[in-house]
Amino acid sequence: MSNHPVQPKLIIHGGAGSSLKGKGGAEAVRKSLYHIVETVYEQLLRGSSSKDAVILGCQLLEDDPRFNAGTGSVLQSDGQVRMSASLMDGASQRFSGVINVSRLKNPIYLAQFLQDSADRVLSDYGAAQLLRELNIPTHDPLTDLRLQEWIQERAGNFNKDMAGVIAEAELADSAGRGTIGVVALDQAGHVAAGTSTGGKGFERIGRVSDSAMPAGNYANAWAGISCTGIGEDIIDECLAARIVVRVTDGASLEDAFHRSFVESQQHQRDLGAIGVAQSGAIAWGKTSEILLAAYHNGESIGDTLELPEGMQTGSC
Ligand code: ASP
């Protein structure tokens, strides 16, 4: 590392999915995202590692009941909340995560603990056992709004592909996605990525989300990526790892996003992603209608809330 600290970079997301138009959602979502971007960016400026900044960002997004992760997670077909989260530290190129864990406030903390464990990805039963071992207090992440959504969906026999991207007071027509993610570059030039989700919503018990797989969350020394959208589509594209490998092999982050999203579009996938490269580039992409992302590039804060419909990629 040179003596000059690198300028930190940060991008976060609160999911991808269908339009927020007419739901009074965009301004409220922007406010939530900007507040978290500002808090986490300040921590990066104080010298925090990208890994710690990602954990803080994920925790704040998990605690916001608007987003489908932690408190405010959507319910599965049997009316239970099961959450998945992962953390990848680019400096050590180490992935850790939990799959389908219940009754806790911040799944990202389990992923954090597992970074230094010999067994780094735990699923439901093992994750519950770890919660007890660590004496993590029990927490019910269920909100009234998500319960109402589930009751409404049950009446329609769960005919939606996914739950609403954002918990809305106005429930009708809220089909979309959820999930949260954070990718950061710290002053030492290290990248990290974290992703956390309540899943697609209304899914079969035991369904595994991309969010705790390298397909949905991946980082190395060159770049970090967090994905959102239909998990099956993200897994089929192996999207996070695919973009990171392209950057590792010499593509710019912008090109890696563009090529990967052109392919995703050709394959008719429904997804989105955010990323940061060691070069300092920040990028985003989507094939879904909207992507709820916000970033800090060291100069200013921006967001992707009003991108045109259809496939889009962008960078700064
Ligand atoms: N990718 C998540 C899943 O399929 C859902 C989402 O991003 O909203 O579990």
Note down, in words, how this protein is organized:
The protein is α+β, with helices and mostly antiparallel strands and 316 residues long. It has one domain: Glutamine Phosphoribosylpyrophosphate, subunit 1, domain 1, CATH 3.60.20. The protein is 30% helix and 24% strand. It has helices at 26-45, 50-63, 107-114, 124-133, 144-155, 231-237, 239-248, 253-266; strands spanning 9-17, 83-89, 94-101, 121-123, 180-185, 191-197, 217-219, 223-229, 271-277, 282-286, 290-296, 301-303, 312-315. Strands 4-3-2-6-5-1-11-12 form an eight-stranded mixed β-sheet. Strands 7-8-9-10-13 form a five-stranded antiparallel β-sheet. Strand 9 (271-277) and strand 10 (282-286) form a beta hairpin. Helix 1 (26-45) runs antiparallel to helix 2 (50-63) and helix 2 runs antiparallel to helix 3 (107-114). It is globular. Mean pLDDT is 91; it is low at 168-176. Aspartic acid binds next to strand 8 and helix 6.
